[in-house]
């Protein structure tokens, strides 16, 4: 890890989408990649937690048109032009579940996996007790830029 930030705002003014990521960790500069982290202390509803995870897909799916007036131009992922300019893929989201008894966290993990089935961003999840024991992350979402392009409309050029 080469750096980190907390409470990072991800916003797209044109769509009204805005949310905060609990932490963003930068990996060594050779890859220029980052990882996103959400910590759920068990205080929000299951539906709200799922909506927050889906916000990442909406953010990753938004595209912007670039090109001088009168030229053909092209569209590009908003995140790649305005937030993570050196990343090749949309950052992986890690969701850490904490704040409740372990069996309740396990139930929450399974429910979250069901709620985000089909999401087109990489989402890994685990409970804090399992992470403290050294258990691996569970992958519940797979990065799919082509799938995002199908779900989110292309911006209209000038």
Note down, in words, how this protein is organized.
This protein is an alpha/beta fold. The chain has 5 helices and 8 strands; from the N terminus they run βββαββαβαβαβα. The longest helix is centred in the middle third of the chain and has 16 residues. The protein is elongated. The mean pLDDT is 85.
* Principal-axes shape call: elongated
Helical stretch tally: 5
Order of strands across the main sheet: 1-2-3-6-7-8
Largest sheet: 6 strands, mixed
Q: What is the chain-wise order of helices and strands?
A: EEEHEEHEHEHEH
The helicity comes to 25-40%
Mind telling me the C-alpha Rg?
17 Å
Instruction: Work out the oligomeric state of the chains in this entry.
Output: single chain
Query: What percent of residues are in strands?
Result: 25-35%
Low-pLDDT residue intervals, each spanning 5 or more residues: none
How many angstroms separate the termini? 41 Å
Let me know the number of strands: 8
Structural class: alpha/beta
User: Roughly what is the average pLDDT, rounded to an integer?
Assistant: 85
Question: How are the elements arranged and paired?
Answer:
Elements: E1 3-12, E2 17-26, E3 34-40, H1 46-61, E4 63-66, E5 74-77, H2 78-82, E6 92-97, H3 102-115, E7 123-127, H4 128-132, E8 138-141, H5 145-151
Parallel strand pairs: 3-6, 6-7
Antiparallel strand pairs: 1-2, 2-3, 4-5, 7-8
Helix pairs in contact: 1-3, 1-5
Structure at a glance:
This protein is of the alpha/beta class.
Q: Top keywords for this entry?
A:
30% helix, 158 residues, elongated, six-stranded mixed beta sheet, two-stranded antiparallel ribbon, alpha/beta
């Amino acid at each position: 890890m080469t750096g980190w930030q907390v409470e990072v705002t991800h916003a797209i003014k044109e769509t009204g989408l805005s949310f905060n990521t609990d932490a963003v960790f930068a990996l060594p500069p050779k890859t220029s990649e980052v990882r996103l982290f959400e910590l759920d202390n068990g205080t929000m509803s299951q539906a709200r937690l799922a909506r927050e995870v889906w916000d990442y897909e909406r953010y990753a799916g938004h595209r912007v048109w670039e090109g001088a007036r009168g030229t053909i131009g092209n569209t590009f992922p908003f995140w790649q032009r305005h937030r993570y300019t050196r990343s090749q893929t949309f950052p992986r989201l890690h969701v850490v579940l904490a704040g409740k008894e372990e069996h309740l966290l396990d139930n929450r993990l399974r429910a979250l996996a069901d709620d985000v089935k089909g999401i087109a961003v990489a989402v890994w999840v685990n409970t804090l007790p399992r992470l403290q024991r050294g258990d691996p992350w569970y992958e519940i979402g797979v990065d799919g830029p082509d799938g995002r392009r199908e779900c989110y409309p292309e911006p209209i050029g000038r």
